[in-house]
Task: structure prediction
Amino acid sequence: MSKLSPSSNRRQFIKGLGLAGVAATLGASSANAGRIRPRAPKSAMAKNLIFLVVDGMCTGTHSFAHHWSLRNRKKPLNWMQLYEQPGLTRALQDTASASSPVTDSAAAASAWGCGQRVMNGALNTDANGNSMTPLFTYAKAAGKVTGLVTTCRITHATPAGFVANVKKRGMENEIAQQYNEREVDVLLGGGSRFFEGEKALTKVPDFQNKGYQFVQTKSELESQAGNPRLLGLFAKSHIPYAIDRQNDGAMAEIPSLPEMFRAALNSLSQSKDGFVLQVEGGRVDHAGHGNDPAAILHELLEFDDCVPIALEYLKIDPDTLLIITTDHGTGGCQLNGVGSGYSDSGPALERINDMTASFEALEHKFKATGRFDPEVFTGATGIVPTQEQADAIQATMDDPETTYLSSEMTGIVADALFQKTAVGWTSSNHTSECVDLFAFGPGSDRIEPFINNNELFGVMMQALNLNQGA
Ligand SMILES: [Zn+2]
Result:
């Protein structure tokens, strides 16, 4: 599209004046016209798509993190500042799947990725086993480059939803193989175990043979900045939680989500025909499943730092459609009113600051020795376990049936965790809540105020001018 389009002009104008100035100007001139929503023209096409998804974020999760930010950083969450950005299209999104009002991440990502709701657990494959062509295949056919960035295994459900066709999300070796065959240009995340060893269907050299640079540390990622093809695998499974990376020096060489996002933009933005990039803050969901209040807070704060990077990129490259949303809620996370007149809810947002490790990291520590260590536990959580709790945790560790010790631990000390943080949960599962969706840039005006998750596919296809017959 022409660089002289109204959309570009508006962006130049905004750039010159500063975002706050424009908002003030529009507000003043439109006092009698109701709320003004400066939007791109209906016909606008986007060259690029940035799809920012936080996995498993309840409204209560970002509200809790927002109030933490206000109290501790004296500023709102970036997420909340999106509501005030000029050019915002905002919608409420129904997140159901074909099999349940409560989706899993595979069905949710498939709804976006191919435009059809599928059964929970499936990736771009319907109940009869038919494969639906995913978004990245269309983008590739149009000459665009593609990228996936996540704090989960790169073969996990949400990134896979834009690329892969498998009956079950657990087929991660097949997903890795499809990434290679379908040549996703930038792959940054965890999950190296699906790219090595006997069971791997594709291995790192298969990518290197196709011109990918392979990186495993933050320094290597920085040194390869701008390479058009990147395979970055920074953990065997999921990337450790932000709270652990920030407090454990041994993890200093694992990049953060914003660092991976910037690296991906550096690489992909060189494409003359544009790019499609999905960036997932994948482990808000995991901390929700684990009912781990400090882990979920820091995970969300890290995702939130991606928001200004995306908005900044839109200023440089205005032919970019930016979508920011979540796929479903997880855990029903809420900061609750506690104390007389709820006066203790604010101080709880400070007490959570002396939590310095996730329960997952504690699980790894205790499993390494086979012993629950109450001193380590108290040092990381500020909670002094009773003898009864310590015995219960040890017994859970010793039980071969235990799958997630971390979740069992948060369950055993749930009352103490609630007293400390005022954060409560409705379950350790996903929830059905309708979720916020933000969009900026060309094509965002096609999004209706209430949208089903699978309707977003058509919006993205049209905005990018991708041809479904291709
Ligand atoms: Zn989940």
